[in-house]
Amino acid sequence: MLALAALLVLGSASMVASAKQGRGNGNGNGNGGGNPFDALWDAIEEVREQIAELFAINEEQQEQIDELASDSEAQQEDIDALTEADEELRGQIDDLEAADAAIQTQIDTLESQVSDIDIQIQLLEDEQAALREKVAGLASQEEVDSLNADLQSEINSLQTQVDAIDTFDPTDLQNQINELRERIALLEDPDGDCDAPAAPGVDWHNCDLRGRNLRSADLHGADLSGADLSDAKPSDNLLTYANLSGANLEGANLSGAGVSSADLSRANLSGANLSGANLSGANLSGADLFFADLSGADLHFADLSGAILVGCTGHVICN
After folding, report:
1. What angle in degrees, to the nearest 10, is found between the helix axes of 38-134 and 2-28?
2. Stated pTM of the model
3. What is the rounded distance in angstroms from the CA atom of residue 247 to the CA atom of residue 226?
4. Which terminus in the chain has less CB density within 10 A, N or C?
């Protein structure tokens, strides 16, 4: 387009020169009539204006090309960042699955040991009964008592091992496995719709909501599992039946909030303000309530199994 415009400029310049020469000749010859090149001169001026417009259009198109090139580079950087994050998440998933398999192997080994010891005890008891029958005809009762004492000592030793294993609760390992599986599920789907506005049933799982002012928002039935709400201000909120499992609510202000029947299992509520909150029927199993303020909170029918209550204040359940 620029080459064409240059040719038009050269052509128009040549035509202008010819027009000026013709105009000069006409004046020199004393022709008093209208100049025959005036129309041509006007046409040349119009061509020049069109060329100027073409140059302006070309500059605008070049600016658009530069903007598109810049946007393309930014999009490529976003793609590279997402690819790197995906590889990191995959690595974490592999590590968690390996830990899951190792814990399951430990459970299987312990169960096998318990079974083997039970068999050994039964064999020894059978052997003891057989020996009692054999020594029934012996003259010395002392020999019989000695044999029985030795066998009983072996049985007691094995029983001690069984008791020690019985004190180990496999459900603890199973709970760890379930927690790892939940973390794997969150890693496979790392973020909810974090930009969505506050509304009942909103999906904010695993979102960074630190310091956000959510006062009086209706989050009934919302998914906030794994979300970071530390230092957030969701006071007076409606969080009934919301999923807050594993959420970080450290230092959050939940005073007067309606959290009845919500899932707060394994949530970090250390230092949180729960004064006057309705937590009736809520699941707080495994939650961390270290130094939380529970003044006037309603905890009727709440599940506090395994919850950390050290240092919490304002309620009879606090240590």
Report:
1. 170
2. 0.44
3. 4
4. C
Rounded mean pLDDT of the chain? 80
Phi-psi region of 242 (alpha: psi -120 to 50; beta: other; left: phi over 0): beta
| pLDDT 10s digits, 234-273 | 666 789 999 999 999 999 889 999 999 999 999 999 999 9
Can you tell me the mean pLDDT for 125-153?
73
Q: Determine the Cα–Cα distance for residues 81 and 45; give it in Å rounded to an integer.
A: 55
Per the structure block, which two tokens stand in for 87?
Answer: 């590889």
The residue type found at 189 is D
Six token digits for residue 221: 């039935």
> Exposed/middle/buried for 16, CB within 10 Å: 0-12, 13-18, 19+?
middle
Domain coordinates of the chain in residue numbers?
2-27+38-89, 111-184, 194-319
pLDDT at 71 over 70: yes
Q: How confident is the model at residue 111 (pLDDT cuts 50, 70, 90)?
A: confident
Cβ-contact 294, 314 below 8 angstroms = yes
The CATH H-level (homologous superfamily) assignment of domain 194-319 is: E3 ubiquitin-protein ligase SopA (2.160.20.80)
Give the Cα separation of 52 and 56 in Å (integer).
6
How confident is the model at residue 95, as a pLDDT? Answer: 85
Beta-carbon contacts of residue 158 (< 8 Å; ≥ 6 apart) = 117, 120, 121, 124
Using alpha carbons, select from 244, 127, 13 the residue that is nearest to residue 274: 244
- Of the candidates 160, 152, 157, 162, the one whose C-alpha atom is nearest the C-alpha of residue 118 is 162
